[in-house]
Amino acid sequence: MNILVMNCGSSSLKYQLIDMVNESVLAKGLCERIGIEGSVLTHSPAGKDKVKFEKPMPSHKEAIQMVMDALVDKECGVISSTDEIAAIGHRVVHGGTYYSDSVVVDEKVKEAIKDCFDLAPLHNPANLMGIEACEAAAPGKPNVAVFDTAFGMNMEEKAYLYALPYEYFEKYKVRRYGFHGTSHSFVSGEAIKFAGLDPKTAKVIVCHLGNGASVSASIGGKCVDTSMGLTPLEGLIMGTRSGDIDPAIIQFLCNKLSISVDECLNILNKKSGVLGLSNGISSDFRDIDAAAEEGNHQAEVALEAYALRVAKYIGAYAAAMNGVDAIAFTAGVGENDKNMRKDICAYLGYLGAFIDAEKNDIRGENRVISTDDSKVKLLLMPTNEELAIARDTLRLTK
Ligand code: AMP
Questions:
Q1: Which candidate, 81, 93, 139, 214, has a CA 20 to 30 Å from the CA of 327?
Q2: pLDDT 10s digits, 135-170
Q3: Ligand 1 pocket residue status of 186, Cβ below 6 Å
Q4: Which atom belonging to ligand 1 lies closest to the Cα atom of 209?
Q5: Is the four-CA dihedral 104, 105, 111, 117 of positive or negative sign?
Q6: Cα dist from 379 to 52, 134, 192, 325, whole Å
Q7: Does 331 sit in the ligand 1 pocket, CB within 6 Å?
Q8: CA 186, 191, 197: angle at the middle one, nearest 5?
Q9: pLDDT tens digits for 2-41?
Q10: Is the full-model pTM beyond 0.85?
Q11: Which of 49, 118, 148, 198 is catalytic?
């Protein structure tokens, strides 16, 4: 039983074909420059060399047809016909208030994805294009939408409502949705299994620390709170996003710089975070780490501010759940940056959470990184959003 997983952006798409019998990746790849001159598909079949196909891809339709052709190709293919694909799972960023779980796509689902265009203007249109292109390329095959916001839809009102006039929620659905939900759900579930916790009552905090970053708190796998909000701008300091700020800064900067709100939001999304704090060194932690090691003060402060923000969220979420059994680190920074994990955990002694320097000297694999006497299990848990999408797709189409 093979599931094709699609993650469509506006000019690119990533895919994986996963054999669900043993959850192994048969092939993965990337189409770049869709709709732009110089389109290229890089296809990586398991155990074989990667292949590049350079052919015009005016739209997602041609791109997806090229992916299907590569999958069944005599040389670099991994299946003999597309009949061997049971279903297609799609990452969809925003499901609005419509969906708190993944769903098999029909016309109503497509309308709902469209209705959420203004909540995720860069992502949802591309996600829908990907679904429609798959419907055209593989007629009759079930498509499943797996929403980044679904996990956060399980929060209670007290956690998801903003303290704004209530009519804005009623009229415009202004609320906290949360993002990276597929990762938070996957990692919290894996953490419960890996640490041998009770799946019904386990209190887990997941720190998804990548270029975008968010924290979630869940009890028994159900989201209690999460740091991203109506958009992914809220919460932690990120690569280029500011995370939480005083909202009045927007008016202040618009006046000082004579810029529009849109321009100001562009600064908050693309020029802030550790990039802004480090005075422009980089949004990539490897560069900031290197600069800090050379004694660059702004780089040091960026790293310290980042760790402090994560620690503050962990403290808030431990309070919201009246305790925490496990804290899991995941995504690019969480999986690879042992110094950042150490700096964050240095704040957590009051919870009885202690990191073990030796066990923490690792990257990219499931591992308990706390000391044997730590009351809270600290975990390194690589995320796998593609596998999470494939599992949901299988569950809904079996
Ligand atoms: P993601 O969005 O999950 O792909 O994470 C990407 C980010 O992870 C990069 O921008 C880096 O900041 C960070 N990252 C990746 N590898 C390392 C590493 N070895 N050390 C520190 N940070 C890393």
A1: 93
A2: 999 999 999 999 999 999 999 999 999 999 999 999
A3: no
A4: 3
A5: positive
A6: 37, 37, 10, 11
A7: yes
A8: 130
A9: 999 999 988 999 999 999 999 999 999 999 999 999 999 9
A10: yes
A11: 148
